[in-house]
Each structure stands twice: as C-alpha cells, then as structure tokens.
From TrEMBL:
It is an enzyme of class 2 (transferase). Residues 614-730 form the Response regulatory domain. The keyword Transmembrane helix does not apply. Residues 7-34 form a coiled coil. CDD domains: HisKA, REC. Pfam families: HATPase_c, HisKA, PAS_7, Response_reg. Residues 379-590 form the Histidine kinase domain. One of its GO terms (cellular component) is plasma membrane. This is histidine kinase. Keywords: Coiled coil, Kinase, Phosphoprotein, Transferase. Signal peptide: none annotated. SMART domains: HATPase_c, HisKA, REC.
Length: 739
C-alpha cells in the first residue's frame, strides 16, 4: 500500500511526505524507552525520506520534460498554423483552380479559383465533401456544356471511371465557348490533387491556327489538283460536290465551277448523262448505285466517251470520311495509238503467220529429209552390219578348220579388211548420231591407264611397221568422262599422228592444269598449214588424198563432235615440216582411285563345253543365222533356228521343250521385236538366259534390255562378245530354279 496518492500533484505529495516525516520524528522523541523499535522506525523513516527525495527528483525531472514538451508543442502548433496559413496563401497565388482530397476521397482544402466558373455549385464545395458528390455537382451544373448525345449521369459515370486512373488529363467545355483543362495527380499517401486550368485562349488560338492551316491546305490541295493532268472532282459523305480542278472546267464547260460547287452527285450526273457514253456494259445506273452504297465502296474503274470523240478513263474511290473522289483521265491519244498498234499487230501477225507457214513447210521438209537420212543411215547400217556380222563369224570359224599357212594368212587379211569396214560403218553411225544430237554420253570416273594401256598394245605394231617410235607416257590420274568416247578420241588422234608421220616419233602424254588435265598427242609429221587447221575437222577432209595411208577423213570430225558433246576443249598447234600437237582438256576427278586395265580380264583360253544344251536362235538373216549356228554347234550345243517370232513360238509349242538359252535378233519383221518376244516367252518359260542381237545403239533399247536383265550384243557381232554370253549359259543353268 502506497503512503501517497500518485494522482496528487507534486506539491501535494511533497507536503504529505513532510507531514509523515514530522510525525515519525515526534514518535521517536516520545518513546525513548522503546529505543530498538524507535531506531527501526527511524531507519525506515530515513529510507522513506531517501525514496521521497529520489521520487521528488524524478518528478521534478519529469515535470521539466513535460514543460519542455508543452513548449515545443506550442511552437509546433504555431508553426503548423503558420504553414497552413502559408499553404493557403500559396494555393491562393496559383492561377489554376486547386483542390486536395484525402485518402478517403474527401475534400481537404481548395482555393478560390477552384470551380469558380460553376457559379451554381461554388458555395457547396466545402471541406469533407466526398469526391463522388463533387462529380455529381459538376455534372448537374448548368454551366457545363455536355457533349452531344451525353447525359449528366453518363458524364458523371465516365468521370468516375477516369478517376481510377493514375494520371488523368482532359478538357471540359463550359458555356459561352469556355474551356477548362482538368488534371488529376496522386499524392504519395494516396490522396488526390485536382488542378483546373482555363485553356479557352489556347483552344481558340489552336482553332484559328487549324482553320488557317486548313485554308492553306485547301489552297495547296486546289493548286495540286489544278496541276494534275486528270480531271478530279471530290464529293463529301452527303454526296455533295465540294471541289474540282481546272481540268474539269474544260471537260464539262456548260457547268461552271462556282455554280457546280455544292451540287449533289445525282444532279450533276443527270446533267452529264446525255454527253457521256459508257462502255463495256457499264452505265450511269451502276455509278449511281455505287455512290448510294454508303458502306465500304470498292474502287471502280470504267471508260466513257464524249460525242466529240474524247475517251476518258474514270476511276472512283471512297475516302476515309465516307465521301468519294472521281478522276477523269483523257486517254484519247492512248486509245488511238492502241488502235493503230492493234491494226499494226494484226498486219504483222498475218505476215508472221504467212512466214511461219512458209518456215513450217521448209522445216517439215528439212525434218523429213533429216528423218529420211536417219532412217537411211540406220537401215543402211543394219543392212551392212548383217552380212558383215555373218562374214566375221564365218571367218572366225575358219582358222580351226584350215591348216594351210597361206590360207590362214589370207583369212587374217580378210578379217582385217572386215574390221576396217566395220570401223567405217561405225564412224558413219557416230557422225550421224553426233550430228543429230542423239549420242548418249555415259560420264563416269576411271583411270587413264584404262585407255592408254590398250592403245599401246593396239597401235605400237602400226608405228613399228612404219619405223617410227610410239611412246605413251603412263598416268595414274583419274578423270571424269565417257570412257568409250574418250578412247575413240585419243585413238583417232594417235592413229592420225602415226598415219601422217613418216619419220621421227609420236608421243602421247598428260599435262596437269589445276583441276583439269590435257591429253596431248605430239608428232614430228608434216604439219598442218594454218589455212587448213579448221577444214581438217570437217567430214571427208584429208590432207593428202594421194597417199595410200590416207583414211576416209572422218576421224577428226568424230573427235571434234565428241569433244563438243562431252564439253572437252579441243585445241591444235601445228607448224608445217615441224609437227603437230592435238590436246583435249578433261576434268580430273577429286578422288584418285586405282583402276583395272582394260586387258586385266581376258577371256578363257579354252571355249566352254555346251554339250547337251539347247539354244534357240531367232534371226531373219539366213547367212548370219548360219554363221552363229556353226559357232554354237562347234561348242557342243544344239540350235533351234526360227526366222520369225511366230515360227519360234510354234516350234516351242511343237517340241514341248524349254531352251537353255535364247539368241534373239531385235528386228524380227512385221513390227515384232526380240524384247517383246522375250516378254511373251517369259510368261510361259521364265528365267531363260537371253541375249538381244542388234545394230540399234539407241538408249531406249539399252534401257529396255537392262530392265529385262538381257544381254545386248551389238552388230557387227564380236566373236568374243558372243562367246562371253555362251560361257555364262552353264552357270546360269545351274543357278536357275528347277523347272
């Protein structure tokens, strides 16, 4: 229990403590006999006095602090009042209307300029006014000029919606063409500051400037329109003429510009209807309907003409504001030029048609002549190769039956003559194919040794017989070309060099030039005069027709055409009485590979034994059929010969045997071919080894044989090629499924 009441004032508490101390002292003096107890009371009184003093000191310190705080509070209140007065004075000095709303959207203060133009609500704008009430007062004021189609509640709703934005700026129109710019800003504590600025002068000035600019733009637009070569008229969204240029004055003279401006489109169209003639199915009704279509008119173009012969190209297009513009371009000169050009074209087309017919007749005659030549060459080649093949086969059979050396020598000479005849026919065929563009080039990668090694074996005896030295420098380079044609090219060049060189030597070598190489043939022959260096590549052109060694003059013609077809550059250097050099440029293949020489796979020394086998031969040439039969029968096989496909089918049906192999001529007469006959037989007897014999060297036949897995033996028949096919028959027989 406390001896003093804490609620008492400091002076009252001190007074009570002094009374308590005095009372205790009197008690001590009165009760001396109770010294012990008195002493304890004295100590307690002393302790209480000490506590009282400490408490008094604390209370005095607290009182001092309180007095200091009260003094500071008084100063702060004074400063606050001063600041409020300064703020009030400050916002009063602002030229704009100013208002501050707190975080609860209640009006805190405003200056006298705030809403002073709204005289009917000015007195109701007091502190504590909610923001939505403020908006309602503004929207209902008679001094607010609402936009067309907007009600007071609608304006208030839109205003409250914008109040939610972080920063708001908009203009408000008042009566008597006055304007306020209202802007809202958020304070850091979430309050709102509204500023109202009178922008009447600015808006009126902008309007004047805009009108002035619009007037200047109108003048510039009019000047631009007057500068155009087209007549232009402009209609607004009400189809009222608002402008046209000077070109329209000349086009429609009866209607002056001043009288026409403001005229409706329909009225103007009616006035011009009699003077204009529409073309291509277009008429004034179409134009009127287009103008009446007020939603998204599509651009439209048409032509009209006047009675004086003028022709105008008319283009009508809608403008963004819903109006439209129509332009008239005078195309009279263009139409007259187009008409003259059309008449000229008609005349030229007739001339071209007549000339084309003449050229067509000439071309048809040339094509018929070329086709006749091709058919003649093909037929002649076939007719020549047929007996030539028979003769070669007969000659290849004679050495096995004749022992007389003189006869064998004659046989060898005959075989050489037949080979020469075959070479001539093949040269003619090559020339014909190369000229007709029907030569097929099979480009592949191969080593030059595949060409050089056989040529060394083939041509060295010819050079030795003439007493000249033939040197062929080996090369391990790999090229990309057609090996068959490239061999013919090099063979012809080296053969010519040997033929026209009487002493000295012939050299065949390779010179590398970057990604290409040059195959060069050098000789020490008689040389070629510069005047003859172009003519030697023509058919049947020979340098010396009197010598017995001169050929037919086809070799270099074949070389020149083959190089052109392969894309290989052919060049010549020559000097009379010194020698010549022919070079062919060939691309080098990037990956050099070892190639197997042409003579690496020789035919077996002993012929294959075909004893017990049955071969069917379908050949319409009796001599060739007899020669082939003799060769096959000498190998032990039996031959069934038929002259036609019908006879062959009849024989197969009659003997009821399946042949072990078939040799079929390609041309069997009556439109029948060996490949078609094979397909018919394969339906009954499949997997019969078959070879097609033909002088036809076309790509079509080669592809057909490849598709049917048939061997193709070209005429004139090479003895080794035929034997190669016969050698495969026993292997194919045992690898076939049992029948």
């Amino acid at each position: 229990m406390s001896l003093i009441n804490p609620a008492d004032t400091l002076e009252r508490q001190n007074e009570k403590l002094l009374q308590i101390a005095q009372s205790l002292m009197r008690r001590v003096e009165q009760k001396n006999e109770q010294s012990g107890l008195a002493y304890q009371q004295f100590e307690r009184a002393a302790l209480l006095e000490t506590q009282v003093r400490e408490r008094t000191r604390d209370l005095e310190l607290t009182l001092d602090l309180l007095q200091d705080s009260n003094a500071r509070l008084e100063v702060a209140n004074t400063e606050t009042e001063t600041a409020r007065a300064n703020l009030t004075e400050a916002i009063e000095t602002i030229n704009e209307g100013f208002a501050l709303f707190d975080t609860n959207d209640r009006l805190v203060l405003s200056n006298s300029r705030f809403c002073r133009d709204f005289l009917d609500i000015e007195e109701r704008l007091v502190a504590g006014l909610p923001f939505h009430d403020y908006v309602s007062l503004i929207s209902g004021s008679r001094f607010l000029a609402l936009p067309d189609g907007t009600t007071a509640p609608g304006w208030a709703t839109q205003r409250m919606q914008r109040h939610g934005d972080e920063h708001v700026v908009f203009n408000v129109q008042l009566l008597w063409d006055r304007w306020l710019q209202v802007s809202e800003h958020r304070t850091t504590r979430g309050g709102t500051v509204i500023l109202q600025t009178d922008v009447t002068d600015i808006i009126r000035m902008e309007r004047q400037e805009r009108d002035k600019m619009r007037d200047q733009q109108a003048k510039m637009l009019q000047a631009t329109l007057d500068h155009l070569n087209q007549g232009v008229c402009i209609f607004d969204h009400n189809q009222t003429l608002v402008g046209w240029n000077k070109k329209m004055d000349g086009m429609f003279a009866p209607t002056r510009r001043r009288a026409a401006i403001g005229m409706e489109f329909a009225t103007l169209l009616d006035r011009l209807r009699d003077d204009l003639q529409f073309h291509d199915g277009f008429d004034a009704e179409h134009l009127s309907k287009w103008a009446d279509h007020s939603i998204r008119r599509r651009p439209m173009a048409f032509e009209v003409s006047r009675s004086d012969g003028q022709v105008f190209n008319v283009f009508a297009q809608e403008m963004p504001d819903g109006g439209f513009v129509i332009s008239f371009t005078d195309v009279t000169a263009e139409r007259e030029a187009a008409r003259a050009l059309y008449e000229m074209n008609e005349f030229l087309e007739r001339r071209v048609k007549d000339r084309t017919q003449e050229l067509g007749v000439a071309l048809a005659e040339a094509e018929r002549a070329n086709a006749s030549k091709s058919r003649f060459v093909a037929a002649a080649s076939h007719d020549l190769l047929q007996p030539l093949s028979a003769a070669k086969l007969f000659m290849s059979s004679l050495p096995d039956t004749v022992d007389n050396p003189d006869a064998l020598h004659i046989i060898a000479k005959t075989e050489t003559a037949l080979q020469s005849a075959e070479q001539i026919i093949e040269a003619l065929l090559d020339i014909s194919k190369l000229d007709a563009g029907k030569a097929v080039f099979k480009e592949q990668t191969f080593g030059l040794s595949k060409i050089f090694d056989p040529l060394r074996d083939e041509l060295s005896p010819l050079a030795a017989a003439k007493g000249i030295q033939l040197r062929i420098v080996d090369s391990n380079l790999t090229v990309k070309s057609d090996p068959g044609y490239l061999r013919r090219i090099v063979q012809n060049l080296v053969s010519n060099a040997i033929r026209y060189t009487t002493h000295g030597r012939v050299l065949l070598g390779v010179r590398r030039c970057g990604t290409h190489l040059k195959i060069e043939t050098w000789d020490t022959g008689r040389g070629i005069a510069e005047s003859q260096q172009r003519t030697i590549f023509e058919e049947f052109q020979r340098l010396d027709v009197n010598t017995s060694e001169a050929g037919l003059g086809l070799g270099l013609a074949i070389v020149e055409r083959a190089c052109k077809g392969l894309g290989h550059e052919l060049s010549l250097w020559s000097e009379p009485d010194v020698g010549s050099c022919f070079s062919v440029t060939v691309p080098i293949d990037g990956s050099t590979r070892k190639t197997v020489s042409a003579g690496a796979t020789d035919a077996p020394a002993n012929p294959t034994d075909l004893t017990g086998l049955l071969l069917m031969l379908v050949e319409n040439d009796p001599q060739l059929a007899k020669a082939m039969s003799m060769m096959i029968e000498r190998m032990g096989a039996s031959v069934i010969h038929a002259y036609s496909a019908e006879e062959a089918l009849s024989l197969l049906h009659e003997i009821e045997l399946i042949p072990d192999a078939m040799l079929l001529d390609y041309h069997l007469g009556s439109g029948q071919t060996g490949t078609r006959f094979y397909e018919e037989v394969s339906k009954i007897h499949p997997h019969v080894p078959t070879a097609i014999v033909s002088a036809n060297r076309s790509r079509e036949l080669k592809d057909t044989c490849k598709r049917l897995s048939l061997r193709l033996i070209e005429k004139p028949i090479n003895h080794e090629h035929l034997r190669g096919f016969l050698d495969e028959i026993p292997k194919a027989r045992y690898s076939q499924p049992q029948r």
